[in-house]
Input
Amino acid sequence: MTSTMQQSNGAGPSVPPRLVRQVESLIGTSPISAAASSLIAESAAKNYNAGAMRIFVGCLLVATASVVLTQSSSEFHSRYGEPDVERFTAQPGISLAVEYGSDQLACQALIEPPQALIHQEEQAQFMSSERVSEVLEEVAPVAMRGNEISTMTHVSGCNEVHITDFENVLIRRSTHTCDPSSQNQDVRTAITFKRDTCPKPRTPGTLTRP
Output
């Protein structure tokens, strides 16, 4: 006489039908065998459920740790105060980094292509010269630069560095001109403001090539 093992009901763990069939195929379907297979299946189900729970708890702990370890901008501001350097996306493909003085006004600014904070040397990237001029006018408008004191250009192959010294600001603009028809020739532009609370800029004669 054959007997079919049933899934357990009530508070006990639910035994998957597929697991029941696998156990029955191994030990038979007699009454004694059915009882034994039921115990084995229920034990396997408990182990299965316990394993699944451990995996779930482990994933939950990892996710929670990631949330806890990652701090927001407001948390850094709350802990360390106002930053002395900030970086912005001024325009598509153009990054603007600004360093402030003790009075929280800009002392230096750098316009360059976006890049990771920790990065390796990569192939040179060039920015739209028109957009760089727009950002430069926003950061150091012509009206605030004062009278022009001097200007000079260093040329090395396709690389050019244009240095213009004004009463209130020093601007060093680097370009790559191997392709005269390209609209993307700017490499970087450094802006140094001449204020008492800012470090004194190096004179144009001591500036190094990029």
